[in-house]
Design brief:
By secondary structure, this protein is an all-alpha fold. It has 1 helix and no strands.
């Protein structure tokens, strides 16, 4: 069985430490991204549930919802 190379020679320990720090930072970024995605998923679910409730409320009041309406846009300013 061969011996593993000696890492401590010539600053090898510093290289290993740098790689470990980079690995920890990458895991932190991945975890933050995962949590952000979970928040977006929760927001999307809540928006979908709100849309269902709004449609049900519109049905109870007899109002028909045909989708988003165009916003009122005033015409050009008139001068007298």
């Amino acid at each position: 069985m061969e011996r593993a190379p000696h890492v401590a020679r010539g600053g090898g320990a510093a290289v290993v430490l740098t790689l470990l720090i980079a690995l920890v930072e990458a895991v932190e970024v991945a975890a933050a991204s995962w949590h952000r995605a979970q928040e977006f998923q929760a927001q999307a679910k809540a928006a979908a549930e709100a849309a269902v409730l709004l449609r049900e409320a519109a049905g109870l009041t007899g109002t028909r919802s045909t989708g988003p309406k165009a916003a009122h846009r005033p015409g050009p300013a008139r001068t007298r």
